[in-house]
Structures are given as C-alpha cells and as structure tokens.
Amino acid sequence: MGKKDSKISKWRYKYRFIVYNDYTFEEVWQLKLSKMNLFIILGSLVIFLIVLTTILIAFTHLREFIPGYPDGNMRRNIIMNAYRLDSLERELEIRDQYFVNLNNIISGKEPNDFQSVQDTSMDYSDIIFTRSLEDSLLRLEIEMEEQYNLSVGEENRLEDNLSSIHFFAPIKGMVTSSYNPAGSHFGTDIVGSPNSVVSATLDGTIVLASWTMETGYVIQIQHNNNLISVYKHNAELLREVGAIVKAGESIAIVGSSGELFTTGPHLHFELWLNGSPLDPEKYVLF
Questions:
Q1: In the predicted model, is pLDDT for residue 131 greater than 90?
Q2: Most buried in the list 54, 109, 135, 187, measured by CB within 10 Å?
C-alpha cells in the first residue's frame, strides 16, 4: 500500500522549468508543473487536434484531398448514374413485358395486365368530402352573377360547331382504346406503324412540351375557340413551347415513353373544350 501511495505522490511532485538570461543570470520565465499536469495538458491538446481535424474533414472541402475520396463531380455523377440505371431497368422491364404480351397475342393467348401497383400505404376510405360555408356562399354568388349571363350555353354551341371544323388526324392507325371518362380515360389510343410522325390536328400554338413519369413525352397545342389538343407517350418531341404550328405539321414521333400508363408504342390523343374533355372519335377520322 505504501509503495502505491509513493508512486501516486511522484505524479504530484512539482517540477519547475526556468529560463535564465545567459549574461545576467536574470530569471526571464518559469513554469511549475507536475507529471499529472503535463499529462492532462498533452492529453487535452491531442483531443483538441483530433476534434479539429474531424471537423475540418467533415465540413470543409479538405476531405477531397484524401486519396481515394470522390470529389463533388464524381459524387454527382454517381448519383445521376444510379437514377439513370433505375430508369433503364424500368424501361427494360416495360419492353420485355411488351414483347411477352405481343407473343401472347400472336399465340392467341390473353396478354398480361401490366399496370402500376396501387399504393396501399395510404387509406383513402376515411376521406369525406364536404362543402364549407365559404364554398357554398361562393357558389351562390357565382350563380347569381351568371343568372342573366347571355353567354351561358355558349360551350354547347361551340361543341356543336366543331362538327364543321376539319380535324387533321394526328396519325393513321387502329384505335385500341376509346374515350371513356367513367374509367378516367379522357382520350383515344391509336396504334400506328413504328416511328410514325405525329401531326398537329389544327393550327395553334404549342403551350406545353415536356416529360412526365406517367405519360412520358407530352405536347399540348392551344387552338382557337379555347380548344386544346394533347399528344402523349411520344418517343421524341420535334417542336418547343411557343412554336406556332399548322394543321398536319409534324410535332412528335410515336413512342411508348412514360412509366405508368403505357403498354407499347402508341399515341394517346385528347381534345379539350373550355376545360372539358371531348370524344376525339366524334371529330377525327383515324
């Protein structure tokens, strides 16, 4: 026990470090430390250096100088390649399913239903749609304002007048799915020859030319009389937003783009009048 206390007491012995002037022997600076104090100071200094190095590596660009660590461009390319690989796998899956269905049709078998699986993580059965007091008052106000409006019924007259307009067929082919608003199918699906050119059905201005996950490459044209035509699932768009097109002018190439609502190369064509869908087969001869 005595030897142990003796060892501990040695750590507490004070040592004095003194700096003298070599000519005058005057004391310039001194430092009094024990072994324990020296150990604590050195340990704290090491911990501080470790923490400082960790912070510099974690929150600054110095980490990019570490051999083998990817820089910002490399990490960005890795992420983009992962996205592209995922999209490519999805497109290959859709293509393989399309060929399987085509083989089944040729063999006289029933094609497989290839649709996206509904998200079951959400429960929509408890949603109740009700009208608020503000909504009812707004509706009443609008109805009172439109009570003597002579333009009421103009939409029906415009729809009747569409029969006198010559609609250019976007593509020539076979209709595989007709207009069915009850099934949320607001257009007509037409299958044509591969790489067919999609044409504008009427003169107008392109107001939308983009890509969506559901319908792929989409182009939308604004015509006169508040009439809009929509062309979906294209393989490539030939015109940009703002371009003025004539009836019969090429605007896209038929394809099967989109990850949710396509089972093969075809054109999904829609007609809208004043925000309401129309049956394209009533006005266009495909």
A1: no
A2: 187
